[in-house]
Every structure is written in structure tokens, then in C-alpha cells.
């Protein structure tokens, strides 16, 4: 959203520029034209560093929890006509990618 | 002759890369079609086309980096071009992915009798959204926080911190792709299992592909930051990578909520 807003703002700034002979001048309005914030960067750097560590900690805890708990395998479904569709062979052979190779061929 | 330039625009030199890129793209599409249908030499033409395309991307972007970083052609006025270009590109990507979510919603909101009139279709094994999908969803926003950290570090002139922040961003991205690969490998269904498999793997697969593109983009930014290419005042390449990365991590929430969670329970 903020990207869109700053994009619009700079588009308006472009339109406001007088057309006669100013094209050669460096654009004074250009500084941080597409920026999402105008806060103190030292403070923002430290804040986002902390948020990143919080995110990494959360993801690590979730990963450990997920990887330590097992998962169930669903039972083999009946051969419904809309499952395992094969109209022609794949360029690399009869098996699909990411598929358990269990068929006889 | 530098004295005679009285405007702030970059008049580019003639370059062989547009035509070499076009030839590479032609060989890739023709080779791709030949590979997917029983034509001889399809794999060879496809590989040649891809190598040609990757080579063109490398040398073209190498030239752009030389023009901007070493020759100083990217004035403020010139920088507007890649900025608007990046925004329009991301908008087109939003529309591209929107089509896949549309396909998924179209098929799941009123499931046809052919798949048992239910969603997920009868007999389809679906992934538990509380497992890897739930784990993978906060990884991307965390990576988005890390890229914001990198952005503020660049603006504050903290060059080393910015490199660390980008390493964190890329590491989280790689962890996401690793888990996504694991999920695909363990998934009880494949892309050939009914409209569920088609829409699921098309939407999540293209999202995953975009994550990989964004990761490569960020790796390049990390290397350029390490080499001192990016300054407080001039880091358009990094900004484009950050916008792209935010697009990728926000888009992840849509498949998670609508495809994994709502469509999988």
C-alpha cells in the first residue's frame, strides 16, 4: 500500500514539474521518493533487527516442534478415474515428479 | 567529451544482448515444445536455449552494473526508469498469480459431480495445514522483516550490518524452499491427481518459483552490498529486490489461507 502511495506521490511530483527546460537539472524531489518510512534509520535498523530475531526464534521453535512430531500417511484411495491421470508419457518416463515410485513397469 | 553532456539521461550504447536474448527465448520455447512432444533433439535445443538465455542475463546485467556502479550513468532521472519498471513488473506478477487463485476458487467453491461434488475431491490425500504449511508461513514474513532491517542499515550507512541482514534474509528464504521441497516430496497427491492437484501445484509451485527468483535477486544484492556497490543515496537494485520480496511474502498468505487451510480441511 505504501509503495503504491509513494509511487502516486512521485507521479504527482513529476506532473507538477514545469515542462520548460528543467529536464537537465537534477531532481531535488528525488530523495527517498519511494521510501516507506521517514523515521530515524539508526533506530529503525535496531528495531527491525530485533523483529527479525523474534521471527527467527518463532520459526525455530515451530520447526523443532514440527520435526519432532510425526505425521500420518493417508490410506491409499480407490482408483477413481480423476486420480493419477496419464494421457501420455512424460518426457522423462512413466512416473511423475515428487511421486513415490511403486508401480511396475 | 564528458563535458559536452548537458542532460541527466543515459543514452545507451548499441548492445548485442537484446537479439541474443530473443534467440535464446526462441530456442527455449521451440525446444520446450519439442521436448514435451515426441520430437528428436528437443532436450538439446531446450538446454541450449536456456544456456543462451542465462548467459544473456549474466552479461546484460553485468553491463548494467558497470554502467551504473562504475561509470555513473544512473542519475536520479535515470533511476526512475527501473523504479517504474519494477513496480509495473510486480503489478503484472500480481495479476499472473491472481489467475491461479481464481482457478483454485473457481474449482473449489462449486465442486463438480465428476470429483464427487466435494472439495477436496473424494479420495484425495491432502496435506495437514497445521504441519509444514503452518510452519512455512511465518518464515517468509520473518525474511521480509530481515530485508527491512537490511534496508534501514543501508540508509543508516551501516554497511556490515546490511550484509548480515541480507544473509539472514537469504537464509530464511532457503529454509522456506527446503521445507517446500520436503512438503512436495511427502505430499500424498501429485499434479496429475484431479483438478485439486492441478490447481494446488500450479499455485503453490509458481509461488515457490517466485521465492527462488527473489532469493537469487537478494543473493546478488548481498554480494553487491559486500562489494560496496550500494550506497545510502543509490541502491535501486536493492529496493527493487525488497519490493519483490515483500510481494512474494504477502502473496504466500493467500495460498495458505485459501488453498492449504480452507481448501484442505
UniProtKB/TrEMBL annotation, chain A:
GO aspect biological process, one term: mitochondrial electron transport, cytochrome c to oxygen
Pfam families (alphabetical): COX6A (PF02046)
Cellular localisation: Mitochondrion inner membrane
Segment forming the signal sequence: none
Major localisation: mitochondrion
Keywords attached to this entry: Membrane, Mitochondrion, Mitochondrion inner membrane, Transit peptide
Source taxon at top rank: Eukaryota
GO cellular component terms attached to this protein's record: mitochondrial inner membrane
GO molecular function annotations of the record: enzyme regulator activity
Parts of the chain that traverse the membrane: none
Entry similarity comment: Belongs to the cytochrome c oxidase subunit 6A family.
PANTHER family: CYTOCHROME C OXIDASE POLYPEPTIDE VIA (PTHR11504), CYTOCHROME C OXIDASE SUBUNIT (PTHR11504:SF0)
Protein name: Uncharacterized protein
UniProtKB/TrEMBL annotation, chain B:
Subcellular location, record wording: Mitochondrion inner membrane
Residue ranges annotated for the Heme-copper oxidase subunit III family profile domain, each copy included: 5-264
Molecular-function GO terms, alphabetical: cytochrome-c oxidase activity
Transmembrane segments: 43-61, 81-103, 162-180, 200-223, 243-263
Major location (coarse): mitochondrion
GO cellular-component term (any): mitochondrial inner membrane
One of the Pfam families matching this protein, by short name: COX3
A GO BP annotation: mitochondrial electron transport, cytochrome c to oxygen
Lineage top rank: taxon: Eukaryota
PROSITE patterns assigned: COX3
Keywords (A to Z) from UniProt: Membrane, Mitochondrion, Mitochondrion inner membrane, Translocase, Transmembrane, Transmembrane helix
Function: Component of the cytochrome c oxidase, the last enzyme in the mitochondrial electron transport chain which drives oxidative phosphorylation. The respiratory chain contains 3 multisubunit complexes succinate dehydrogenase (complex II, CII), ubiquinol-cytochrome c oxidoreductase (cytochrome b-c1 complex, complex III, CIII) and cytochrome c oxidase (complex IV, CIV), that cooperate to transfer electrons derived from NADH and succinate to molecular oxygen, creating an electrochemical gradient over the inner membrane that drives transmembrane transport and the ATP synthase.
Subunit structure: Component of the cytochrome c oxidase (complex IV, CIV), a multisubunit enzyme composed of a catalytic core of 3 subunits and several supernumerary subunits. The complex exists as a monomer or a dimer and forms supercomplexes (SCs) in the inner mitochondrial membrane with ubiquinol-cytochrome c oxidoreductase (cytochrome b-c1 complex, complex III, CIII).
Family, as annotated: Belongs to the cytochrome c oxidase subunit 3 family.
Protein name (record): Cytochrome c oxidase subunit 3
